[in-house]
Amino acid sequence: MAKKGRVARILNILCKVNKQPQSEALKRRDRSAKSRGGAPGLIGTAGSGGGGSKKSEWKKRKERQARKASYVASSTETGLAHGYHSGMKILLVGEGNLSFALALVTLFDGDGANVLATSFDRHGVARAAYPDCRDIEESLEAAGAGIRFGVDAEDYKGLSKTAKEWWGGAGGPHGGGTQFAGFDRVVFNFPDRGVGTVGLLPVRANQEMLANFFKAAKGLLSRTGEVHVAMGGDEAHKAWNLVGLAAKGGLTYRAALEFKPEDFPGYVHFRTLPHMSLLTRRRKGGGAAAG
Predict the structure, then answer these.
(1) pLDDT tens digits, residue range 199-232?
(2) What is the DSSP string of 52-108?
């Protein structure tokens, strides 16, 4: 197809130079090119919308590799894992024992003024479920970080209200009183509906949770903000189709980086616990939690 397109383009030029009419065969080639969405005699014009504009798998793979290399380079500029730094406005959702929030504050030399950590669990339930939650909570408050309990990552209205109230309050960035400008990072580590990972039901339940979360997170991002999701690498988690769900939520996939717990001092991952706080909310129609 590409060779015929080049021939048609050359013949077009020769006809114009010699002021000769196009042959019927050349006219048919031009009409064929137009029907495929391309310019006359040109196959695969960018943005043509036709079949010729489809990228090859090789080119797609190269573009993904280039995006990842660019992202890895930019994420290491701060010297901290995944490019985090204390100047970022960061929203954490689905925090279990709040240890990831504490890890970030530790990396930021004790500055948590721009970090808002939210947990799906009610306050009392979280303290009962995670023995070190009270100590971590006190450390975060001393560092100036925001902490909110009973926040569902799937509920855009609730999540948005919580985030904006924190932002504009005395404990928010710049001491509060500033207009909401969106978060630089919205982070959900190891999302889990708490219904297992094997079988069709867990896949659908977790896909629904992630789809709702992506829609909620998109509305809370700054112009250059990003959503970070840490996931297990097994086949069960791959079936959730994280990238496809993010795309449906209006987000553009950038790269996949290795998540190393040792890069975040003190971080401990907990599986979603099947205590009453989670079971009650799930019966009422959802609820996202992680650890």
Answers:
(1) 888 899 999 999 999 999 999 999 999 999 998 8
(2) GGPPPHHHHHHHHHHHHHHHHHHHTTTSSGGG--TTS-EEEES-SSSHHHHHHHHHT
